[in-house]
Amino acid sequence: MKDFKNKVAVVTGAANGIGRELAREAALRGMKVVIADIDVENLNKVKVELEEKGTEVLSLVIDVTEYDQVEKLAKETIERFGEVHLLFNNAGVVVPGKIWELPLKDIDYIMESNLYSVVYGIKVFVPIMLKQDNPCHIVDVASVAGLLTSPAMPTYHMTKFGNVALSEAVNYQLQGMGSKIKMSVFCPGYIQTDLHNCDKRRTEKFKIDEDPYYTSEGFYAGLKQSEHVIKTGMPIDSIGMSVFQGIEDENFYILTHPQYNPIIGLRVKNILEGKNPDISFFKK
């Protein structure tokens, strides 16, 4: 896609961070924008901001961990605008900590928020785009954590590797069909977002409860680490432009931090050479 004016963009997780920047960039390019999130207060702020700039906006309170709500997102998008051309499967969360210490609820929380939500978006929106038979694009927001591993957040790596693999395989399928749908997977490094505060927006089914883990040293250490790496990350103001440039150029992999490229390459090299993962790499 190179012509965005009057086309329709759907952005999940649009109330904060990367999603908000993608919605802003879509509006800047003259698109009609559908914004979806569970954060009602900030979603309304984004809606007002975009409408003040003359953008046609549909704002929906949607929990992307529920398949029927993603269906609702698509249904109301089509009812309002008639078509959809650009989908950002962006909504996501972070859960740090040792996986054997995490409550099963937290594993479900990150799996459903980061991976199932992308599956649902693809499953619901691809048939609509295929039926339209016009140029469309899907961007699945993963992370550089889907291209390399570290000891910090195993569940986050798990879901983001899943994002990358899912996107690659679906992209092959669409190519094989001769589809007009293009795909990208966005794999940023640390960016200054509000992701470390995602626990404040947990829905009832994932609500932090009386489990002793949530008062443990490991839980608080994970929160502190997440806050540090996010607050010291790349400024967010150029992210929307970078992603849209990737869409225009039909880049499947959209990256933000070149300094991680050697680490990604080293991981692949070690696999091919039969070398084992070595914690000493992270101690240097």
From TrEMBL:
CDD domains: SDR_c. SUPFAM superfamilies: NAD(P)-binding Rossmann-fold domains (SSF51735). Pfam families: adh_short (PF00106). InterPro entries: NAD(P)-bd_dom_sf, SDR_fam. The keyword Secreted does not apply. Keywords: Oxidoreductase. Gene3D superfamilies: NAD(P)-binding Rossmann-like Domain. The keyword Signal does not apply. Belongs to the short-chain dehydrogenases/reductases (SDR) family. This is Short-subunit dehydrogenase. It comes from Clostridium punense.
